[in-house]
Amino acid sequence: MLGRGVKRKWSCLEELELLPGAAVPEEKRQNLAAGGGHDPSMSRLQQRQLVLSLCVEKLQHYQAGVELSLRRSVLLINTLRQIQEEMRSDGTGTCTPEVLLHGVDPDSYLLTDDMSVTCSGCAEGDMESLSLSPPASPEPASQDAEQQKPLPTAVSNTLSDAGSAGGYLSDLALDDIFEDIDTSMYESSDLLSAWAAGSLWPVTSSLWWDEDMKLRPAGHSSAGSLQSCLMDLNELDHIMEVLVKS
Amino acid sequence: MAAPGGDMQWCFSQVKGAIDDDVAEADIISTVEFNHTGELLATGDKGGRVVIFQQEIENKSLPQFRSEYNVYSTFQSHEPEFDYLKSLEIEEKINKIRWLPQKNAAQFLLSTNDKTIKLWKISERDKRPDGYNLKEDDGRYKDPNSITSLRVPVLIPMDLMVEASPRRVFANAHTYHINSVSVNSDHETYLSADDLRVNLWHLEITDRSFNIVDIKPANMEELTEVITAAEFHPHQCNTFVYSSSKGIIRLCDMRESALCDRHTKLFEEPEDPSNRSFFSEIISSISDVKFSHSGRYMMTRDYLSVKIWDLNMENRPVETYQVHEYLRSKLCSLYENDCIFDKFECCWNGNDSVVMTGSYNNFFRMFDRSQRRDVMLEASRENSKPMQVLKPRKVCAGGKRKKDEISVDSLDFNKKILHTAWHPQDNIIAVATTNNLYIFQDKVN
User: Name one GO cellular component term (chain B) (predicted).
Assistant: First the structure.
């Protein structure tokens, strides 16, 4: 447990589960999945959240030594993009992972420079605008924040499972994040998870083999580049910790 | 030609494969194809093997039993390989088999795995030469000086031996996974398609192929659509189609340009907004495309339906058949267990009046286009008594389940029928479950 912010009471947690856009706890997720796409208890937003986390999970899961199906990867990524697009249009349009994706240099997974993973909108100077926007309009923003938050956290969670995507993030359990709605807690975790989410892009680009890759530096096979870009995130840890403390 | 689908009574004929419930991975059937006369039936499996069955000559004294298919030849077509550059295994699984039209005594087929296509010659040998006087009994050559007479060997009958030999290997032309192979009506060329490219080959030439479609974007991160299937027109040797993961079929004319990146026709049905969901794109991905024998229509299979297109009408199909509509409300679960990515094939009967495709729980469906009737049948060991008539199956989507109906929640999604084939002239069908091949035929009255 983080030890940051106040731990919420059990009754409040139950209420939180029913909020649209809330992360779906594992148990309920299984029930929802079993119930199928039109489970009356599952709203569109809940389904969206489920599909989103499944998408990322499927994209992350790969068997070493076996080539990924390009068709499957493309369909998953298109679904992911569709959901991200929808979430972006629902949300206030701040630094969502979608923005990060556009900002990332396609060759970023090849770069060792940590800061290259940043998008222009997330440069040091803009961080204030990031942290300020959620509390700007309390009521709708908290709704939007709830919607925006699950995306990066789900992504970061699966990334942390895959490898060394930040020691901080890998220690987090999904439930722990949502037990705190303290906004200052939200701001920094959103930033941190947004950073982690930004690395989704180099992950996806490494998912398929580009025959031109043989012209690039050795060691960048489809599995290898995944590992190498995750290892770059280790170096981001240091930066993340500095920002969190400030 | 027997009566179309609605009047047909399908009976069990044979089942091939292990009875075990425990399926060996290598035995999983990955493709089924009749040859042009229907006399031969080929299957490919995950272990890289091809098994060919031959129809025995009809037993005239027992007309109610149509001839049976027995093993004719078995050979290892592809072996597992290792791509050292990418550190990846290349599966030996046979993705497709296509027969060449027969020109002489031998039979030829193309078989392909993810990367390499091979042309196999299957020939019979039922005679052997005998009477050489050049060797001793133990096989050593005699001293030439000791041979004083000229003896011409004679051919004597021997037990039938069927030999399969690889005649051509078409390798190194595909970076991505090959999903289709199609022989042209000129009988000289064929196409092979992978996720991003379609190549044209000459059957005699293995060191070169022409790239005729290339949808690879300059920046792979812009990739949003892949090729899922391709086929040549049955009569027009300049025409072929390819389908995509976005539910679009493009028809190309090779006379227009060398690289057919610009389609001649584009077939796409606008999406029904009431059916829109997060899974819309995935379920619109076309898993198979087949021209009708007449060449006037083509059929596409996507996750939930079969569509028949008139080549002269691009904006919508002329017929749509729902294969398992009861799954539409289960798409989320099917997405979670990956079944939504299953690729079902489809096929036409000999006179294009009936189409067939597979489903889950070892069910398969036939749609009679002329009689507007359809039926769902099951391939199972329980219904495997000789000439046992198959009973139609029904799935209940929800609410009250009638007698003999099966509830959608009881369906076994591990039992999928992805590959089916219809005899080109007769009402005989081959249906592949995971590791068994079922042969059914129309009851002859």
Answer: cytosol
Residue in this structure with the two tokens 């208890």, named with its chain if needed: A41
User: Which residues in chain A touch residue B282, judged by CB atoms under 8 angstroms apart?
Assistant: 75, 79
Q: What's the CATH fold of domain B12-121+168-442?
A: Methylamine Dehydrogenase; Chain H (2.130.10)
| A51, A75, A224: residue with CB nearest B245 | A75
Domain ranges in chain B?
A: 12-121+168-442
C-alpha closest to that of B358 among B283, B429, B272: B429
Best CA proximity match to B384, nearest among B438, B420, B429, B422: B438
CA B357/CA B377 separation, integer angstroms: 11
Q: Please report the number of interchain residue pairs, chain A to chain B, with beta-carbon separation below 8 angstroms.
A: 99
Structure tokens at B1: 């030609």
Cβ neighbours of A212 (radius 10 Å): 10
- With beta carbons less than 8 A apart as the criterion, state whether B377 and B357 touch: no
On whether any CB of chain B is under 8 Å from the CB of A28, the answer is: no
Three-state DSSP at B201 gives strand
Per the CB < 8 A criterion, the answer to whether B354 and B372 are in contact is no
Q: Which of A31, A62, A67 to mutate to test the interface with B (most CBs of B within 10 A)?
A: A67
φ, ψ of residue B76 to 5 degrees: the values are -90, 110
Please give the model's pTM, rounded to 2 decimal places: 0.73
Q: Model confidence at B202, in pLDDT bands (50, 70, 90)?
A: very high
CA A198, A204, A209 angle in degrees (round to 5)? 145
Q: Among residues B203, B128, B209, B149, which one has the least CA distance to residue B174?
A: B209
If we measure between CA atoms, which residue out of B304, B326, B320 comes closest to residue B395? B326
What are the CB-based long-range contacts (under 8 Å, 24+) for A234-239?
Answer: A234/A164, A234/A166, A235/A114, A236/A114, A236/A117, A236/A166, A236/A195, A236/A199, A237/A166, A237/A167, A237/A168, A239/A114
Give yes or no for A216 touching B (CB within 8 A): no
pLDDT at B257: 86
Closest by CA to B98, choosing from B196, B191, B165, B214, is: B191
Residue with tokens 């803009």: A126
User: Does residue B42 carry a pLDDT above 50?
Assistant: yes
Q: Is B214 helix (H, G, I), strand (E, B) or coil?
A: strand
Phi and psi, residue A212, nearest 5°: -70, -10
Q: Cβ–Cβ of B226/A71 closer than 8 Å?
A: yes
pLDDT, mean over chain B: 92
Could you give the residue ranges of the DSSP H alpha helices within B135-268? none
Task: Determine the residue among A74, A104, A110, A228 to mutate to test chain B binding: the one whose Cβ has the most chain B Cβ atoms within 10 Å.
Answer: A74
Instruction: Give the burial string for B97-119 (b: 16+ CB within 10 Å, else e).
Output: bbbbeeeeeebbbbbbbbbbbbb
Q: Averaging pLDDT over each range in A96-100, A106-110, A141-145, B441-445, which range is the top one? A: B441-445
Select from A54, A83, A205 the Cβ nearest to the Cβ of B221. Answer: A205
Average pLDDT over residues A23-52: 60
End-to-end CA distance of chain B: 13
- Whether B335 sits inside 8 A of A51 (CB atoms) is yes
Q: Which residues contact A27 (CB under 8 A, 6 or more apart)?
A: none
Which chain A residues are closer than 8 Å to B285 by Cβ?
A: 71, 75
Helix axes of A127-136 and A183-198: crossing angle, nearest 10 degrees:
130
